[in-house]
């Protein structure tokens, strides 16, 4: 069986073209390189390289062996990496940042899967409200961030990060049950919704920016009587009959009996995505990302929203 160390020396000699260059690249002495090449030639029973005044030139046999040696060495590197990946999946760590809704609907199922299938890595979770968290991922404070993008709200521009869309979360109207009969079952327009007292976030909140943008495009005049950034408070106010609101569909999978959920016309959505460093090589991170994608696919099926492809 051929010695892989000698094969690597031969491949490097082909790349560098000299004994001295090969020795420098591999941190050997020139005499050690010459000795190992000579031993390899004895092993194969053929001359592999011809020494010249300017360096070395591979023979036909040497060129054929180098071609096959490159593939052998690549496969060995892949095998070593696969073993290392298994080791990291048994140990390692994944530091997750997420906004509250995604922590409930996506991150928690992903953690459950991770602990069942890869119990070794340590998983931690930090509460991060969008648009925060990008710098934490970039500097290594977080390994992965689950965040969202609302219509009309620009995302932070940070290079070196890879964004993976998880799902589209459609906006729906939620109205008190007593008002639902007047609105019917079909999609409700913003013009009709504007006839009701409304609940929304405070000025500057991402939800309020998207809310105002929608009404501006419709030319309707909304009557916002309650301002809160807490969706739980919004749902409670609607259930109490205080007013109507517009929320992401994932928040009202099991609405209160006092709340009716109606599709919006025109349709809009927010995008939920995961963010990690482009240079990350953490196998536990990618296993967790796959579980996030599975949870998003399941949630999309339950809410009727579409899953986007990774890019």
From TrEMBL:
A Pfam family assignment: HTH_1
Keyword annotations of the record: DNA-binding, Transcription, Transcription regulation
Stretches assigned to the HTH lysR-type domain: 2-59
One function term, GO molecular function aspect: DNA-binding transcription factor activity
Presence of keyword Membrane: no
Annotated Gene3D superfamilies: 3.40.190.290, Winged helix-like DNA-binding domain superfamily/Winged helix DNA-binding domain
Keyword hit for Transmembrane: no
SUPFAM superfamilies xrefs: Periplasmic binding protein-like II, Winged helix' DNA-binding domain
Any single GO CC term annotated in Swiss-Prot or TrEMBL for this entry: protein-DNA complex
Similarity comment: family membership: Belongs to the LysR transcriptional regulatory family.
PANTHER family: LYSR SUBSTRATE-BINDING, TRANSCRIPTIONAL DUAL REGULATOR HCAR-RELATED
Protein's name according to its UniProt entry: LysR family transcriptional regulator
Biological source species: Actinomadura litoris
Lineage: Bacteria, Bacillati, Actinomycetota, Actinomycetes, Streptosporangiales
């Amino acid at each position: 069986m051929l010695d892989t160390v000698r094969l690597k020396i031969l491949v490097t000699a082909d790349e560098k073209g000299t004994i001295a260059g090969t020795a420098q690249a591999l941190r050997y002495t020139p005499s050690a390189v010459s000795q190992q090449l000579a031993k390899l030639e004895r092993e194969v029973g053929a001359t592999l390289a011809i020494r010249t005044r300017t360096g070395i030139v591979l023979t036909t046999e040497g060129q054929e062996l180098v071609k096959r040696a490159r593939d052998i060495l690549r496969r060995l590197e892949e095998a070593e990496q696969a073993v290392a990946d298994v080791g990291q999946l048994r140990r390692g760590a994944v530091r997750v940042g997420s906004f509250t809704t995604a922590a409930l609907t996506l991150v928690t199922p992903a953690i459950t899967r991770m602990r069942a299938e890869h119990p070794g890595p340590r998983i931690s979770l930090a509460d991060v409200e969008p648009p925060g968290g990008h710098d934490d991922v970039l500097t290594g404070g977080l390994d992965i961030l689950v965040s969202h993008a609302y219509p009309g709200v620009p995302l932070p521009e940070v290079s070196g990060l890879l964004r993976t869309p998880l799902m589209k979360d459609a906006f729906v109207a939620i109205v008190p049950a007593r008002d639902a009969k007047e609105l019917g079952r079909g999609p409700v327009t913003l013009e009709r919704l504007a006839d009701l007292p409304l609940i929304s976030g405070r000025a500057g909140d991402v939800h309020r920016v998207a809310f105002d943008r929608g009404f501006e495009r419709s030319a309707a005049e909304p009557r916002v009587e309650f301002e809160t950034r807490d969706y739980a408070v919004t749902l409670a106010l609607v259930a109490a009959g205080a007013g109507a609101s517009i929320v992401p569909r994932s928040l009202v999978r099991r609405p209160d009996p006092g709340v009716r959920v109606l599709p919006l016309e025109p349709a809009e959505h927010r995008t939920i995505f995961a963010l990690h460093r482009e240079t990350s090589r953490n196998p536990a991170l990618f296993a967790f990302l796959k579980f996030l994608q599975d949870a998003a696919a399941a949630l999309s099926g339950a809410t009727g929203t579409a899953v986007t492809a990774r890019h």
